[in-house]
Amino acid sequence: MTQLFPGPGTPRLARVGPGASPRKWAWPPGGRDAGNYKFRDRWQSGPFSRWCPRRSAMAGKSTLLQLLALLLLGLAVVRGSSPLPLVLNTWPFKSATEAAWRALASGGSAVDAVENGCAMCEREQCDGSVGFGGSPDELGETTLDAMIMDGTTMDVGAVGDLRRIKNAIGVARKILEHTTHTLLVGESATKFAESMGFINEDLSTNASQALHSNWLARNCQPNYWRNVIPDASKYCGPYKPPGILKQDIPIYKETEDDRGHDTIGIVVIHKTGRIAAGTSTNGIKFKIHGRVGDSPIPGAGAYADDTAGAAAATGDGDILMRFLPSYQAVEYMRGGEDPTIACQKVISRIQKYFPEFFGAVICANMTGSYGAACNKLSTFTQFSFMVYNSEKHQATEEKVDCI
């Protein structure tokens, strides 16, 4: 029997028997399974051209490399045509959108853009619902909530019930960068801010003081107490629980004042695909002193994850924070849902329990596709939000019909 060796690395074949037909080849003892090979119909060049490997190692590697090349090429085409970078924020706060975009254009990160966008709204006191001089609590003091989340590292910095410090989002950024904590609140948050170089100053203005005075003149209506004495629907406090607490079924009571506050929530996707999100607000008018809403709570006010997308919520934080809408929207997108559908699913989920709640959500997936949804009320049928990406070339207001 003649042993043939085509070359280094090539499987060895043997010709069987003297004068055997050249079409009868067999693997030598200890050789590989001949079932992986078959004859060709015609001789080509060389004695082994009749053999065509079905799944040889070299062929397998070549096929795999070709598939990987096509996949990478496809991803490059998709990324090349995607509308990144992206800035998306709640409400028609155009200056905030532009500030976030300028941060990206100047080489800043997604986190930088979120901070700059929110800080602009804090300075401009967007709609009286962000920054100093708005939404006094029942003691007449303006307090701030803010949060910033890095979707690459999953680090979060947040501040709640921040007092006498104007730049709430800046304090949140310092918590993210200089501590291992996530959330600081109240006077302790103020002390931390001072240690980071922020100025302690009064957040009240003539406008916020007038709001509080008028509220007192209306017997402290509306307020957020229940099951107390004196009757909170008629009188100011201080309030105390009755001797035997009446077990009323909780009923959500919507007022016009509830609908008058608008958190800024921002989602930013950098051209490299890195994602960040954040919020800033002064909460709801005439809230109980010490109240913290959804804005500084990761997953409620906002959430970001490079591997899926980001979302931010606005509206009644006491309701929203019970459902973690931003986190839920991101998980819907991780599962393949379109951003608009993800937002709508979140709103529908809350509607089952609180059909009259005031709220909206913005969503963007990792490719830069975006959407929004809101809960339809008699006085709230459309939600406006801002978009700025490489396709629009300017900050653009868009609207969505509430569901």
TrEMBL record:
Its EC number is 3.5.1.26. Coiled coil: none annotated. The record marks D262, T263 as: Cleavage. One of its GO terms (cellular component) is lysosome. Belongs to the Ntn-hydrolase family. PANTHER family: L-ASPARAGINASE (PTHR10188), N(4)-(BETA-N-ACETYLGLUCOSAMINYL)-L-ASPARAGINASE (PTHR10188:SF6). This is N(4)-(Beta-N-acetylglucosaminyl)-L-asparaginase. It comes from Aotus nancymaae. The gene is AGA.
